[in-house]
Specification:
The complex is a heterotrimer of chains A (about 290), B (about 270) and C (about 350). Chain A has helices at about 5-35, 55-60, 60-95, 100-110, 115-125, 130-140, 155-180, 180-190, 195-225, 225-230, 240-250, 255-280, 280-285. With about 290 residues, chain A is mainly alpha-helical. Chain A has one domain (about 50-285): Orthogonal Bundle (MetI-like fold). Chain B has a single domain, classed as Orthogonal Bundle (MetI-like fold), CATH 1.10.3720.10. Chain C has about 350 residues and is an alpha/beta fold. Chain C has a domain at about 135-255 and about 330-350: Periplasmic binding protein-like II (D-Maltodextrin-Binding Protein, domain 2, 3-Layer(aba) Sandwich). Helix content of chain C is about 40%, strand content about 15%. Chain C contains 15 helices and 13 strands. In chain C, strands 1, 2, 3, 4, 7, 8, 9, 10, 11, 12 and 13 form an 11-stranded mixed β-sheet that branches. In chain C, strands 5-6 form a two-stranded antiparallel ribbon. In chain C, strand 1, helix 2 and strand 2 form a beta-alpha-beta unit. The longest helix of chain C is centred in the N-terminal third of the chain and has 19 residues, at about 5-25. Chain C is globular, with a radius of gyration of 23 Å. Classes of the chains: A mainly alpha (about 290), B mainly alpha (about 270), C alpha/beta (about 350). At the A-B interface, helix 1, helix 3, helix 4, helix 5 and helix 7 of A face helix 1, helix 2, helix 4, helix 5 and helix 6 of B.
């Protein structure tokens, strides 16, 4: 009979193998490519001819690194916004909806299964300068000129990203809230704690791993986001991910694109490592 | 019992005495989420040939054409299959990672967790190109399978995070109790843990499915001759006249997704 | 696996089964074409399909010329690939193209010599031209009195209503027209000047457009964009919709681009690929370009037969002076192109 210990390899080995083959190996390849001197055919003989040319180019273009900083700040705002909006939703699911939560959850996630492109097209219809929202506001006389910044601006990118992320952000928080043992709260109530006090002193601390998981789950990929800035960012709302995307697909310059991506990777990992140290999530997981 | 404790006990613990409009908050979010969808659905039933007001009457023409469009149906089917495979792999691996990391101590434990979360940090386009080159090197022809493999990697962090948040709160005593009663560990997992984390497994799977379904950067690089739905979509946008048919298909797919997950939820709660 | 993993084993079997199914869908195709989005539509290879109903043609999508070259260089299995003027030398130098045996092309004589020459490198016919069009300035005549130079794209009088295509080399081309520079020999100083000018121009844009029909044309229709760097596709589309627009004939001349097809040097289906290209030039297939996409087709018979007044207007068929002053995109080196895309990245990131 298979005991605990013996089962470990069935649990740990498949993910390890999968990730090493399909993630680590390609990533190493991408890093190698970032050390190429020139764009052009990649034959595996020339893979080891290293050059720091691409990194030198990045250093020579401080605007690109500044854009990384701006993207980081935008990602921070999006992560904070999504986490804060998601918390009441997750709370609702865990404590109010309880047994019916799965249905409410599904309802929340299903819109995400519709093509993002189509949803943005529909939103553009509403938000554009001749769209429904502006038409309505003009008609009521609340504004004299159509509001331009609803679309094709940095604000539009941030709002859209928060909007897209909030349903997903609710999931880890919901998971964490769901597993809070009611008896902790009952005990607190028995000891005379009021509802807000219970919330701050029991619920929030116990939900912290979920909240942090959510924050990082949103923050990290958003730094490299490019689809939303591409669709609604206009000339102002561009993010670092667009640079990477442009160099890969428009310019066919894989080495430079990879170098930019590696830099973003290193910075993000460093930031997250720092943040984890501060928050000491490891203690929760250990 | 004093009057105060009676009042607290009667309400749901945690929210019983708060007057926070959580339900309405949820409803408002749902409204915003569905607004563009409703709009798309309206247009799919209208006779309009472009996404602009005013509406020009009711028509089922687009749905009729969607069903008759073999390429469109093939692309939709491709995406469904790819997303299902990718979602299943990601959920299974995410579960394995969560259990391994939370219930065992072994060398490389933290590394496994970091690796499982790491695909989040890498832009899809970079992973796409790198996997493209890797598959070339290994002589693997590009196909829907390679897309599914790529998607399973990018969806894994989401599945892992969701399941991790859930399993971290499971009392290990449950497993110990089951094993004390004579169950093997795999049986314990299957009959004790899985049912408990059911909703989280569902949301992990659904999230992974969604991540894969709408993903375009990887699919562009890793697909061979058969396009996935979003890749097909981007291509068809050039034909302004085809947009209503595409919208009709998108609405159909979403409706199908709702129905399927509702069924899955029904089955799950029946077995709970 | 141990017996207790019964359920897991079943699940694994189902998963493996579906993966095999997926891989099987990738059964060797007869012909694989690396195409631009939209052209995989059967209307654009309909003659080939009629002549070869049993041949399976499938498509990989490339998102830009650089992407197409990159994929071919990285060993794409595509038998046929499609790209646009300016890249011919680069593609031949990369060794990914096979010479075209024009004696086997039944429709070759319908292609004017000027187009044929564009597909030649070092005297050899490597490419078959197919689609072509103009690039000029599309403008809304209700808001803009008239346009006679490319520099209207920089005119602050139209701030917020201009739209440039999101492409570095295109931006450099426009700058070279305005300043009278030699496009094949842009100096560092000229590039720096162009960079600054485009940075200053950035705020005048409503946005940079990336897709003709998905974002440029709807915004021209809604009146958000009054002036745009555009191909004639949207012009024809707007004329059909009877919107008051015009397509400029700037003093510096319009630009023209030609799309062409190459055959993969490593292809195993040379004859089939050749037939595919031949059928591309056939009347019906080539004719679908102007009627469905509003792009020009190199088959002269097709172009001569156009009598739709909108298309005649869009292609300037009645006015030969237009073609005389038109600039065709010259080939540029890899290094130049890299510098130009980096310049644009600087402008976008600013």
């Amino acid at each position: 009979m298979l005991g605990r210990r013996g089962s470990l390899r069935f649990l740990a080995v498949p993910p390890f193998a999968w990730l090493i083959l399909l993630f680590v190996a390609p990533l190493l390849l991408a890093i190698l490519i970032s050390f190429r001197g020139e764009r052009g055919p990649i034959d595996f003989g020339s893979l080891l001819q290293l050059s720091t040319l691409q990194y030198a180019k990045v250093v020579d273009s401080p605007v690109w690194l500044r854009l990384l900083g701006i993207s980081g700040v935008m990602a921070l705002i999006v992560a904070l916004g999504a986490t804060m909006l998601a918390f009441p939703i997750a709370y609702f699911l865990a404590f109010r909806a309880r047994h019916r939560a799965p249905i409410f959850l599904i309802l929340l996630l299903v819109p995400a299964a519709t093509s993002f492109l189509m949803r943005v097209m529909a939103w553009k219809l509403l938000l554009g300068s001749s769209g429904a929202i502006n038409s309505f506001l003009l008609w009521t006389g609340l504004i004299q000129e159509p509001i331009g910044l609803l679309l094709y601006s940095q604000a539009a990118v941030v709002i859209t990203l928060i909007y897209v992320w909030t349903p997903f952000a609710a999931l880890p928080i919901y998971g964490a809230l769901q597993r809070i043992d009611r008896s902790h709260l009952e005990a607190a109530a028995d000891l005379g704690s009021g509802p807000w006090s219970r919330f701050w002193r029991v619920t929030i601390p116990l939900s912290l791993p979920g909240v942090l998981a959510t924050f990082f789950m949103v923050f990290i990929p958003t730094v490299g986001e490019y689809v939303t800035p591409f669709l609604v960012g206009g000339t102002d709302g561009i993010m670092y991910g667009n640079l990477i995307q442009d160099f890969f697909t428009r310019a066919g310059n894989w080495p430079l694109g990879s170098a930019l991506a590696v830099i973003m990777l290193v910075v993000t990992v460093a930031l997250v490592g720092l943040a984890l140290r501060v928050v000491n999530l490891r203690r929760a997981v250990a | 019992m004093t009057a105060r404790t009676r009042r607290i006990r009667r309400g749901a613990i945690g929210v019983g005495n708060t007057r926070l409009p959580l339900g309405p908050a949820y409803a408002v979010l749902l409204l915003f989420l569905y607004l563009p969808i409703v709009l798309l659905a309206i247009f799919s039933f209208s006779a309009n040939t472009s996404l602009s007001f005013p509406l020009k009457g009711f028509s089922l023409e687009w749905y009729g054409r969607a069903f008759g469009d073999a390429a469109l149906l093939a692309a939709a089917r491709n995406s469904l299959v790819v997303a299902t495979v990718a979602g299943t792999i990601a959920t299974a691996l995410g579960f394995a990672v969560s259990m391994a990391v939370l219930r065992f101590r072994f060398a490389g434990r933290r590394l496994l967790l970091a690796l499982a979360a790491a695909p989040l940090v890498v832009p899809f386009v970079v992973l796409g190109v790198a996997l493209f080159l890797l598959f070339n090197l290994l002589g693997v022809p590009r196909s829907l399978l390679t897309v599914a493999l790529g998607h399973s990697v990018v969806a894994l962090p989401y599945a892992t995070l969701i399941l991790l948040s859930r399993i971290i709160g499971l009392d290990p005593a449950l497993e110990d109790a089951a094993m004390d009663l004579g169950a093997s560990y795999p049986t314990t997992l299957r009959r004790v843990i899985l049912p408990l984390v059911g909703p989280s497994l569902l949301s992990a799977w659904l999230t992974s499915f969604i991540v894969s379904f709408d993903e375009v950067a990887l699919a562009n690089f890793l697909a061979g001759g058969d396009p996935t739905f979003p890749v097909f979509l981007y291509g068809q946008l050039r034909f302004a006249g085809r947009i209503p048919v595409l919208i009709a298909m998108a609405v159909l797919l979403m409706t199908g997704t709702i129905i399927l997950t509702l069924i899955a939820n029904r089955l799950r709660s029946r077995h709970a | 696996m141990p017996a207790q993993f019964g359920l897991a084993r079943k699940a694994l079997a189902i998963l493996a089964g579906s993966m095999v199914l997926l891989a099987a869908c990738a059964a060797p195709n007869k012909l694989l074409v690396l195409e631009w989005s939209g052209y995989e539509d059967p209307d654009f290879w309909t003659d080939f399909q009629t002549a070869n109903p049993d041949s399976a043609v499938t498509f990989e999508i490339g998102s830009s010329d650089a992407d197409v070259l990159g994929k071919m260089e990285a060993g794409s299995q595509a038998d046929v690939f499609h790209f646009y003027t300016g890249w011919q030398q680069l593609i031949v130098d990369a060794g990914v193209a096979k010479e075209i045996d024009t004696s086997k092309l039944t429709n070759w004589d319908k292609v004017p010599d000027s187009f044929k020459e564009l597909g030649q490198v070092d005297g050899k016919q490597y490419f078959v031209p197919w689609d072509w069009g103009f690039t000029s300035i599309l403008y809304n005549t209700d808001e803009v009195a008239g346009v006679d130079s490319w520099d209207v794209l920089f005119d602050p009088a139209y701030a917020g209503h201009i739209s440039m295509w999101d492409d570095g080399p295109a931006a450099v081309t426009v700058s070279s027209y305005i300043h009278g520079w030699d496009e094949t020999a842009i100096t560092d100083a000229q590039l720096a000047q162009a960079e600054q000018e485009w940075k200053d121009q950035k705020d005048l844009n409503f946005h940079y457009w990336t897709d003709e029909y998905a974002d440029l044309c709807p915004d021209v229709e809604s009146g958000d964009i009054w002036i745009a760097y555009a191909w004639q596709g949207c012009y024809a589309d707007r004329l059909y919709a009877e919107q008051a627009v015009a397509y400029a004939n700037p003093v510096e001349g319009r630009n023209s681009w030609v799309g062409m097809y190459g055959i993969n040097a490593d292809t195993a289906n040379y004859d089939l690929a050749l037939e595919f290209l031949d059928m591309k030039l056939a009347t019906l297939t080539c004719g679908n370009l102007p009627t469905l996409f509003y792009y020009g087709c190199v088959n002269q018979e097709v172009m001569d037969a156009i009598d739709d007044p909108v298309l005649v207007e869009a292609f300037g068929i009645d006015d030969p002076s237009i073609l005389e002053s038109t600039n065709f995109t010259p080939p540029v080196t890899d290094a130049q192109r890299e510098a130009w895309t980096e310049m644009w990245a600087n402008v976008k990131a600013d």
